[in-house]
Amino acid sequence: MINAVITGVGGYVPEDKITNEDLEKMVDTTDEWIMTRVGVKERRVLKNGEAMSFMAVQAVNELIEKTGIDPASVEGLLCATTTGDYIFPPVSSVIACRTGCKNAFTFDLQAACSGFVFLLETAANYIRSGRYRRIIAVAGDMMTSITNYTDRTTCPLFGDGCGAVLVEPATDDNGVIDAILRSDGIGLPHLYMKAGGSLRRPSYKTIDNNEHSIYQEGKVVFKHAVSEMTDVTAEIIERNGLTIADIDWFVPHQANMRIVDAAAQRLEVPLEKVMINIERYGNTSAGSIPLCLWEWEPKLKKGDKLVLASFGAGFIWGAIYLKWGYG
């Protein structure tokens, strides 16, 4: 069986920031309240009229430069996002065009905050098929574009960012070893955007009612996120004959610091083995896990065992067990 391995990582976060001090001027909140409940000190925001594709192009270009590949050799470029530039065409086609990946097939995948986990397994399966040898998987979101900055419960959470990985056939036993992907559909009323799709099309009413931004029932989401992420992580570890002590890095979706803390405690993973960047970037949705890999890349060693775990709207969640391929 052909295995698929990550052979490079690129990333991008905008320079501009929204700090907790900035939010104190927008809504009834404080730095102490935000840090206690969500653990975010600042989040990046994309300005100057740019969109999701801008961040993705920067991440993919960095990936191409670091790995030294010819962009024309990329056979597929897949993108996980909730905040594409347009409803159509897929933003992946825009990214491929602007990065010189002129021979790549493209499509977008929408799995909310679980986007990267679902995307990585999809990219790995193209490699495992034997028909493709070079796939770029890019995941990220411009969450500030769908955040309501009059809602004190959600506006401290979200930021903008994007990461990309190169996936190729493995020449050893490293790579994406296993994946468990799940969804149950019960999360619809608890975390979604009320309008903008075909069910509730844009109108003056939906705009006036702020229905084109994130709606979240925090307590319900917190309960399910901790439970589902920890259960699927424990399952994939056991299924592969491992223990928590065998895992070098736990990479959870950066939804909320309290969720990350609770998941780590329930799994009994020491925090020094958990990748955490939410304090500086906030919840970047599909971008959070690849941005962790991007930041921690210098610390990763060939053969390191990683478990990536995610949870998102729907509800939809999953975990991937992989062995790092370089470093």
Q: Describe it for me?
A:
The protein is an alpha/beta fold. The chain folds into 2 domains: 4-173, 3-Layer(aba) Sandwich (Peroxisomal Thiolase, Chain A, domain 1); 177-323, Thiolase/Chalcone synthase (Peroxisomal Thiolase, Chain A, domain 1, 3-Layer(aba) Sandwich). It is 31% helix and 24% strand. It has helices at 20-24, 31-37, 52-67, 91-99, 115-128, 204-208, 218-239, 257-267, 278-281, 288-296; strands spanning 4-12, 17-19, 42-44, 76-80, 105-109, 135-142, 160-169, 175-183, 191-193, 214-216, 249-252, 305-312, 316-323. The protein has a 5-stranded mixed sheet with strand order 1-7-6-4-5, with helices on both faces. A hairpin with a 3-residue loop joins strand 12 and strand 13 (316-323). Helix 7 packs parallel to helix 8 (257-267). The chain is globular. The two termini are 24 Å apart.
SSE topology sketch:
Blueprint: E1 4-12, E2 17-19, H1 20-24, H2 31-37, E3 42-44, H3 52-67, E4 76-80, H4 91-99, E5 105-109, H5 115-128, E6 135-142, E7 160-169, E8 175-183, E9 191-193, H6 204-208, E10 214-216, H7 218-239, E11 249-252, H8 257-267, H9 278-281, H10 288-296, E12 305-312, E13 316-323
Parallel strand pairs: 4-5, 4-6, 11-12
Antiparallel strand pairs: 1-7, 2-3, 6-7, 8-13, 9-10, 12-13
Helix pairs in contact: 3-4, 7-8
